[in-house]
Design goal:
Blueprint lengths: L7 E4 L5 E10 L4 E5 L21 E6 L8 E15 L5 E8 L11 E3 L5 E8 L13 E5 H14 L3 E4 L2 E6 L1 H7 L6 E7 L4 H4 L7 E5 L2 E2 L6 H5 L7 E8 L2 E8 L1 E4 L1
Antiparallel strand pairs: 1-2, 2-3, 4-5, 4-7, 5-6, 6-9, 7-8, 8-9, 10-17, 11-12, 12-13, 13-14, 13-15, 15-16
């Protein structure tokens, strides 16, 4: 686990350990880059995750529970392009689903194809739903093509460039809307606007509810941040929002924020 850590040890293929320096992180893709000063004794080649198809055999490698180093489990690619919702108001998209056993401690380990190429990075497992149903074999991994793009940005700049609007917000769901008697079932309720931010310059206010960006409406399948992250810093977008139950639109030139 990187979040909150201050010291890191990297265990190399020959069993030696090196102190690692945190270069940067990206919470939205659940990735981080560590640097070591020495040369690694060996490296695994990276594959092309875009060519993966359901049914292909894959191998997950990791240290489940932190005790069983270099544990190998075998499964198949169950699906590609999966999305998993987080508790922070966005979803991690484009994940590879596999039934190769993934347990606590496997996160960050490679998912490898039969050619020995790393095609994804294991990130999480789903054990069940909110209804109490228990599931098995629902593991998810970050495609290596995504990891390559994110890591290259972190190595070059120390962060991943993200479009910046400059608001704090709370997601609106049908349950939240019903409880607070809000006029929309989905949206982003603005709780704070950063001074001199793009949102501030566009005239957005606390209490406004953003319901869409350009032609894409915020709904069950399109979270606010996931829509926003389709754009780049410097892009101009049209925000649709509610103020006093009246729909409004405003154009905003997005800034840049390193996550």
């Amino acid at each position: 686990m990187i979040d909150g850590g201050s010291q890191f040890q990297v265990i190399l293929a020959d069993g030696s350990q090196q102190e690692g320096t945190l270069v940067g992180t990206d919470q939205y893709s659940d990735l981080a880059v560590l640097k070591i000063d020495s040369t690694a004794p060996s490296v695994a080649p990276l594959g092309d995750s875009d060519t993966l198809n359901p049914g292909e055999t894959v191998i997950a490698i990791g240290s489940p529970l932190g005790d069983f180093k270099n544990t190998v489990t075998v499964g198949v690619v169950s699906a590609t392009g999966r999305s998993i919702e987080t508790d922070l108001g966005y979803s991690i998209d484009g994940l590879i689903q596999t039934d190769a056993a993934i347990n606590q401690g496997n996160s960050g380990g490679p998912l490898v194809n039969l050619a020995g190429e790393v095609v994804a990075i294991n990130t999480l497992v789903v054990r069940g739903s909110g209804t109490g149903t228990v599931a098995e074999g629902l593991g998810f991994a970050i495609p290596i093509n995504t990891a390559r793009v994110v890591s290259e940005q972190i190595i070059q700049t120390g962060y991943v460039s993200r479009p910046y609007l400059g608001i704090n917000w709370q997601p609106i769901t049908p349950q939240v809307a019903a409880f607070y008697r809000l006029p929309v079932e989905y949206g982003s309720y603005i709780t704070d606007v950063d001074s001199n931010s793009p949102a501030d310059q566009a005239g957005l206010q606390v209490g406004d509810i953003i319901t869409g960006i350009d032609e894409t409406a915020i709904d069950e399948d399109h979270a606010y941040l996931n829509i926003l992250f389709q754009y780049s810093a410097g892009d101009t977008v049209t925000l649709t929002f509610l103020r006093n139950d009246r729909q409004n639109q405003v154009q905003v030139a997005l800034g840049e924020s390193g996550s």
